[in-house]
Specification:
single chain; 680 residues; alpha+beta; four-stranded antiparallel sheet; 26 strands; disordered N terminus; disordered C terminus; binds S-adenosylmethionine; SET_dom
């Protein structure tokens, strides 16, 4: 969705719509407030408890705060021609965390490693969905060019810039040692003995929160940023942003002050036509591109007839009028929607598997647990190709796969992969034939485009829309609190067994993974962040930090120049304010430390090299406080970037894949231990 290559960025837009406030009519029950998760610390405590319960009760967990009835639905979006959207049937209070935590799957340096087809090619469906790295905070430093896919609200919720009600929750803004995404299982249980290391995302804990009160029945909207829409004007038309809707509201307000309803109808029409003519003239008269764009968007926000303008009055704003059904009747949602909150993520009951999806309600055999749209991805797009010797061109050497492969469904005989993106569905783990209690099927939901199963492969690859869907169906009765497991298939199982054998025997190429210095432990990073003192570069010579650790400094550039030589210490200090905006953080070296009035202050030097201008923008900064310094993983040292980590798609039975999509022998993809074995 938003940004590609730093072009567009996720802005934490705090849009407060009057509509939402007005519609928020009744106070909800207390459990609902307690369910908002409270502080992150208590959320982690809760998770710890759940983990203990999971371990002690054979995987089942208690879910005291779950509503009996479904609270999140997939249903047609209220934005015309925008496919499906996501709706809540219970009110969500401003700043309340959305209860379904998500996984964030990082995409690594696609422009460098992908084939010509991918990485920046705007015609690829996959390229419509990644968030800029600021959503997975500190992701900025994970790799050179990082983007991420965040299912649930991060992919399924549409964007209406005038009705935004959800945004990514950023604990790192106030607690610099947190990156806002890491789930506790990651810091708790991931050790060198963990054979699952790197095979699942370390961002298993992405949280969204409400930017304003959200009414029961309301569609959930995030901001993709205005520039995302500007870049797609050809395909999507002119899409107003929040300011344009507000301006249009002002124009209508003036119109209705001057022209009363009791005026003669033809006079009203005439006056309104004049209003529209003026709006169009403004587009004509605009002196530059930006002005023209604003004028076009304001015009697009205005209704085309005076009758519709009266409708705006009734609904309260042009934004609300442009998506009339953005607050749907809950009964309508029950009838037309598909329930998508029957599962939540908690630490898996399986060893080495990271998080899992747990049923929040009792499900009967044959019932649909959740329904998910899919994006189709070509296998090539997830391959990591090396570089030639000069580093300028891609080589023919396949060096690995994007971690996203592990979250995709497919069959080795097809180059087509499917990535589901309903909430929590990506946490469903492999139970093998014995433990599985569910399976993925092509969806029977009325909005699933099942006729696409007859489409030729080329058309599927070129498709810029989503349409195919999966249902996750219970294959036996599932208790509330039980982990939902499917069978990833024989190919997956075989590769996993091979991976475990290689791991146990300490065989190469897994040596890198065993090597602490290369893919270091996150607990070490978290612990350093709790230390009050940061060692200077000189101190580190005799007392080094682990090599996977780097320091970033978060501070605001002073207005009106740097701390000059002549400036006194106090002035310097007041100028270099810590900032918790990760987008402004910089990798930095700690040069010296001084204690003034009992408080430690640091001189740091940032090392920034502007890739675009080629300019060395390194900066020496004096006097920043400890809380403006943060320990993070050095680029490429998080587990997901270990090239040798386990990689395999989730297997679909051969019988599910239409014959015309079977374009591969399949054996060339991985070094198959048993090449000729036909696996379902
Ligand atoms: C679709 S993801 C499932 C969610 C994942 N557990 C997480 O925490 O994000 C698939 C990955 O989960 C892990 N996984 C799933 N089932 C597993 C199992 N039975 N044993 C070990 N790892 C498993 C593997 O790393 C696999 O590549």
């Amino acid at each position: 969705m938003r940004k590609i290559g730093g072009l567009l960025c996720y802005a934490a837009v705090a849009v407060v719509s009057k509509n939402g406030e007005d519609l928020f009519s009744r106070h909800s029950k207390e459990s609902y407030l307690s369910a908002r998760g409270g502080s992150d610390a208590s959320a982690i405590e809760q998770l710890r408890d759940r983990f203990e319960q999971a371990k002690n009760h054979g995987g089942d967990i208690a879910l005291d705060d779950v509503d009996d009835l479904c609270t999140v639905y997939l249903a047609p979006s209220s934005i015309p021609n925008s496919g499906l959207g996501m709706y809540t049937t219970r009110e969500i209070r401003k700043e309340e965390s959305f209860h379904l935590r998500e996984v964030g799957v990082a995409l690594r340096d696609r422009a460098v490693h992908s084939t010509g087809n991918a990485g920046g090619d705007a015609t690829k469906l996959l390229n419509q969905y990644p968030w800029s790295n600021t959503v997975l905070t500190h992701g900025i430093y994970e790799t050179s060019m990082m983007e991420s896919l965040v299912p649930g609200i991060g992919m399924l919720a549409n964007s209406h810039l005038g009705l935004v009600n959800m945004r990514h929750h950023d604990p790192w803004k106030t607690e610099t040692h947190k990156d806002g995404t890491d789930s506790f299982h990651y810091t708790e249980s991931l050790t060198m003995d963990d054979v699952g290391r790197g095979s699942y995302s370390t961002h298993g804990h992405v949280i969204f929160e409400a930017t304003r009160n959200v009414a029961a029945g309301e569609e959930l909207f995030v901001s993709y940023g205005a520039t995302w829409f500007d870049a797609r004007e050809d395909r999507l038309g002119v899409i107003p942003d929040e300011a344009n809707f507000i301006e249009a509201d002002g124009i209508l307000e003036r119109f209705f002050r001057q022209n009363k309803e009791e005026m003669k109808e033809f006079e009203l029409h005439r006056q309104y036509k004049l209003l529209l003519d003026n709006a169009e003239q403004r587009v004509e008269d605009a002196s530059d591109k930006d002005e023209k764009r604003v004028a076009k968007k304001v015009r697009a926000a205005l209704p085309n007839s005076v009758m519709d303008a009266f409708d705006v009055l009734r609904l309260g704003s042009t934004a609300r009028w442009s998506a009339k059904d953005s607050v749907r009747d809950v009964d309508w949602l029950k009838e037309h929607g598909a329930c998508i909150d029957n599962i939540r993520s908690y630490p898996s009951s399986l060893p080495n598997a990271g998080s899992g999806a747990f049923s929040t309600r009792s499900i009967k055999e044959g019932d649909t647990i959740t329904t998910t749209p899919l994006i189709t991805i070509e296998r090539d797009e997830l391959m990591l190709w090396g570089r030639n010797e000069s580093g300028e061109q891609r080589s023919q050497e396949l060096i690995g796969h994007q971690q996203l492969l592990n979250y995709c469904y497919g069959h080795r005989k097809s180059s087509l992969l499917f990535f589901p993106y309903s909430p929590v569905v990506n946490f469903v783990n492999h139970g093998g034939p014995e433990k599985s209690n569910a399976e993925m099927r092509w969806s029977t939901y009325s909005y699933s485009k099942s006729d696409w199963l007859a489409e030729p492969l080329d058309l599927m690859k070129a498709n810029m829309k989503t349409g195919l869907m999966f249902d996750l169906v219970a294959t036996r009765d599932i208790k509330r609190g039980e982990e939902v497991l499917i069978d990833y298939g024989g190919d997956w199982e075989e590769r996993w067994q091979q991976h475990m054998e290689d791991w146990d025997s300490g065989k190469t190429p897994l040596d890198d993974l065993h090597n602490m210095t290369n893919y270091g432990n996150t607990s070490a990073v978290s612990e350093l962040n709790l230390n009050s003192i940061v060692r200077t570069v000189e101190e580190q010579q005799s007392d080094p930090y682990p090599s996977h650790v780097a320091t970033i400094c978060l501070f605001n550039q002073p207005e009106g120049g740097e701390c000059s030589d002549g400036a006194g210490e106090v002035l310097c200090r007041s100028r270099w304010e810590p900032s918790f905006d990760a987008t402004k953080s910089k990798l930095c070296d700690i040069i010296s430390r001084r204690t003034i009035q009992g408080r430690d202050w640091y001189t740091v030097s940032t090392n920034i090299f502007d890739k675009v201008s080629g300019e060395d923008m390194s900066l020496a900064v004096e006097f920043i406080a400890r809380d403006a310094i943060n320990f993070i993983h050095r680029p490429y040292t998080k587990d997901q970037y270990a090239l040798e980590a386990f990689r395999h798609e989730i297997g679909l039975p051969l019988s599910m894949i239409p014959e015309q999509w079977l374009d591969l022998e399949g054996d060339e993809l991985y070094e198959w231990p048993s090449d000729n074995q036909e696996s379902e």
